Amino acid sequence: MNKRKQNLLLNALTWAVVLLSLLPIFWMVLSSLRSFGEITEGAQLSSEQALHWENYRDMWLNVDFLNYFLNSLIVCGWTTLFATMFATFAAYALARFRFRGSDTASIAITVTQVIPGMLFFLPLYMLYKNMGESWGIPMLNTYHGQIFLYVSLFTPASIWIMRGFFMSIPRELEDAAIIDGCSRFGAFVRIVLPISAPGIIATATFIFLLAWDELFFAWMLTSSAEVQTIPVGIRLFNGQFQHRYDLMMAAATVSTLPVLLAFFACQRFFIKGLAAGAVKG
User: Fold this and answer.
1) Mean per-residue pLDDT, 183-208
2) Contact, 59 vs 254, CB < 8 A?
3) What would the mean pLDDT of 136-153 be, rounded to a whole number?
4) SS3 annotation, 55-84
C-alpha cells in the first residue's frame, strides 16, 4: 500500500472515530427537539415531524433549571480557582526544588489517582456528617463541602499537568532574573507565570470540565435543591418530574454549551499544556 492510500485510510478511520464520538451528542440534540410521546414510543425520525422548541422553554419554566445552572457555575468556578492555584504552587515546588520527602510526595500524588472514589465515599460521608454534628461545621448540602471535595479530587492530576509544563521552562531564565535583582518569588511571578500561562489555562479548563460533569459525589452529598448542580438536576428529571426525557435532553443540551465554549476557547492552550505535561512529566 503506497503512502497516499495509507493517508486516505487514516483519514477515513479518523473521521469514523469522530462521527462515532459525535453520534451521542447528535442524538441528544435531536431528542431535545422531539415530543415526550415520540421519544417513549421510539417513533422513526422524519422530516415531517415538527420540532418541539418549546421543550427548552418548559425546561426553564417548569423546572428550576436556572438554580441548578447557577449552582454549577458557583461550585465549578471556585473549584477551578482554588485547585488551579494549589496545583500551580505545588507543581512548581516539585519541578524546581529537591527537598526531603519530595519523591515520596510525588509518588503519593500518583497513588491517589489509582484509588477509585467509591472506596472513600463512606468515610468521607461520615466525616462530613460528624463535622456538622460534632464540630458545628456543616459540610453536607453546602457549596463549600462540594468545593472542598472537588479541590481535593482534581488537584493531584492537575499538579502533574503543571509539573510537566514547569519542567519545560528553562531554569536559566529564572537564574538570569535572580542575577538581575529579582527574588526567587519575583522570578516566579514575573518570568515563570507569564510563560506558563497556556499550561495554567489548560489546567483550569481541565478542572472545570471534570467538576462540571461530576455526578456521584454531588448526588450523595447534597439533598437540597438550593446547592445541587446540573448533573443532579438532570437526574431528577427521571422520576420526580414524571420521566420527562424530552426536558432531560433539552437540559443536557443546554448544560453542554458552557463546556463546549470553554473547551473551544481554550483548545490551543489545552492541547499545548497537556502535550508539555506528557513529554516532561
Assistant:
1) 86
2) yes
3) 91
4) HHHHHHHHCCHHHHHHHHHHHHHHHHHHHH
